[in-house]
Every structure is written in C-alpha cells, then in structure tokens.
Amino acid sequence: MSKLNISNIDLKYLNFTIKEFKSQGYTYYRIQKQLDKNNKVNVTGKSKEDVKEKYFNKLEEFLNSDITNLNIKKMTFAEFVHYYLFEVVLPSGSVKLKTFTDYNNIYINYIKDKSIGKVKLVELKKEQLQKYFNGLCKTNLKLSTIKVIKNFISAVLNYATNEDYIIKNYCSSVKLPKDNSIKKNKFLTDDEVQLIFKNCEDLKLLVIIKIALSTGMRINEILALTENDFNFEDCSIKVNKTLSSCKVFEDNKNYKTQTIITPPKSKSSNRIVYFNPSISKDIKTYISSQKERYLKFGKKYTKDSIIFTNKNFNYIGYRSLSYHLDVLFKKCNISASGFHIFRHTSGSKLYEMGVNIKTISEQLGHSNTSITSNIYVHIDEEKRKNAVKCQDAYFKTV
C-alpha cells in the first residue's frame, strides 16, 4: 500500500467503488474516480488490494500536484492515442485482448514516432492525414493493412469528437486507392497433397493438415480444439474458440505476452464445420496417443483438454509448427509457406466441385459471401481460359 497518510485525506477522495469485471477468462478490478474537473483516475488490477494501491499512488501524485493533466490543446496525436488506449479502451474491457494487442501494435509501429504522431491533436486536419496515408500506400504494406490502420485512427478521432476535444473526424473523409486486382490465392494440387501425406512422418502435424484441408479451419482454431469439439457420428467440429498470442497489460508500462484461448475471430467464425469421414480414424488415433501420453507423464486428461500440445503439454507455438511445415514443403519440393494454403485449397476444391458460395462461406467462417466470391473468382477465370483453349482443334480444321 502507498505510504500516503490516509487520516489526513479529504473523505471525498476515500469515497470510491471497486468494480469487478471479467474479460477473456480473467477477472479484473477497477476504480474510476473523478478527482476534480480536469483529473480522473482510472486504474485496474488483478486483486482489490492491487487496484487500491494503484489508486492511492495516483491520488498521492494528484495531491502533490504531480499528476499529468489532460491538456488537450497541448497533446500530440501520439499522446492522445496512448491515452485513448490505456485510459479508455483497456480499463473498459470493451475489446478482446488480441484486438487491444493489435491496436497497441498500430500505435507503436505507425503512430508513436511518426510525423503524424507529432502533430497536435487539435491541429490534425484532413490534408495531414491524407498525406500520411498516401505515404503508407507507397510502402510495402498491403492495402488491407492500411485500411485497418485507417479504421483504428478513425475510431480514436471519433472518440475525440464525441468528447468535444476536436470539432471533426477528418480521417473519415481520407481516400485510399481501390484494389482492382483479382486476388489469386495459391492452392495445392491433388498430387502435391498426396506428396505431403506420403512424406509427413509426424502424426500430430499430419492430423492438423488433414483437418485444415478437410474443413478449411484457420490454424489457430485447430490448435484450440478439444475432444469435446468433435462429433464423430456426423463428422462435425464445433468451432467456438481460437488460440491467440496477446499482451496482457497490468498498466500502460507493464505487460506479459501470453498465449490464451479466446472466442473466435468474429460472430460468423463461431460455427459447425464438417470433415471427410476418411480422416476420422487418423483423428481418433491421434487423440488416443495423446491420452496415453498424458497418462504416462501423470497428467490429468479430460475431454476438455487441448489435444494439440507441445512436449510440455502447453499450447503449440505457431512459429515452431510453421517451421516444421516449411521443412515438409521443402522435402516435397512444393513452393509454398504457411498453413493458410490448406484453407485456400479446401475452399477451392469445394468451389470446383460446384458447392454453392453460401455453403463454402459458412464452412470457412467468412462474414459474408462476397469475401468468398472475391477469393475464388480466379478459378472461374482459369476455367474460361481453358474453355477457349479447347477451341484449338476447331480452328485447326477450318
């Protein structure tokens, strides 16, 4: 506890409420207290004692006139983004930890030490924002990434507008170039898939690959699976969680990077997918081997235990798994990288088989069918090219 002498403090500062809230499986406590017209304390902690200590430390700073005032007129845009993240978003628990981590990464990589971050918030106009985004468009960043940055900055400025800190959110009128290119995703041929099956000697990696190819699930959705998620009677899987690497903040300076289970990417990602009956045996065999391994090392196994774990029964790191996959691709002489290729291959095969776009969209967990259509439209392009080539014999005879 702070060394602050509580007996000498005005009772109005001691009249506070400790609120309990839960986010992503964690329990937090929070104190929000308006100290005066310009100063508000908003602190969170993992225990009531922790949050009380943080509050009294802030109160001590305030009473000693050392607390930082929220002086909007002097605040740079970077300073305001930091305030928005750690004094507004994080304490509210309004976003997932993974989302907050992404927001913080945008702040660190694209705002904090950039020219746009040095502009005063109240002086930030459309011309400066447009120039900033024009500069991003000239880098190697994907347009989709730039759009994410724009959406975040727009959210920050919306908050500033709603709080009457600024008059208008000029980011909403910034123009980005249109992406008119047809998205062509690499996918595996049938021969390449058979090569992978033949050369993969790791049962765990093989089962992960077969699930990804059969269902189109994202790799982090697969790594979060438990035995309870499988229904072998109708060959289905409940997708209701995903594995995420997040920064868990204690305050704006102290955090720990943790791998945790979170809800799926979006509402549409929470779904039931179906797998080919022919891989049921492989999945059951792998689950049985996991049960034996748990028993061998004296670990408790339940149907809610994560089935894809590392040698220490912890969550599998994506980088380690990706490394082994790249080794496998090299062994098979396949020019590819990453697990997403299995997702694209799964969707492409369904499309080639004539499965309707809505069904494919639901299987893959896309938020709308236009996303699915844009991804697999190149297959129709190839079909049209091949159809024209089939006319060669006709023109040779006329």
Describe the protein in words.
With 398 residues, this protein is mainly alpha-helical. The chain folds into 3 domains: 6-63, no CATH class; 77-173, DNA polymerase, domain 1 (Orthogonal Bundle), CATH 1.10.150; 190-386, hpI Integrase, Chain A (Orthogonal Bundle), CATH 1.10.443.10. It has 16 helices and 8 strands. Strands 1-2-3 form a 3-stranded antiparallel β-sheet, sandwiched between helices. Strands 4-5-8 form a 3-stranded antiparallel β-sheet. The protein has a two-stranded antiparallel ribbon with strand order 6-7.
Fourth CATH level, the homologous superfamily of the largest domain: Intergrase catalytic core
Name the structural class.
mainly alpha
**Rg to the nearest angstrom?**
27 Å
Classify the beta-strand content into a percent band.
5-15%
How would you spell out the order of helices and strands? Answer: HEEEHHHHHHHHHEEEEEHHHHHH
The whole-number mean of residue pLDDT values reads: 84
Q: Roughly how much helix do the residues carry, as a percent range?
A: 40-55%
The first-level CATH class of the largest domain is given as: Mainly Alpha
Describe the structure concisely.
This protein has 398 residues and is mainly α.
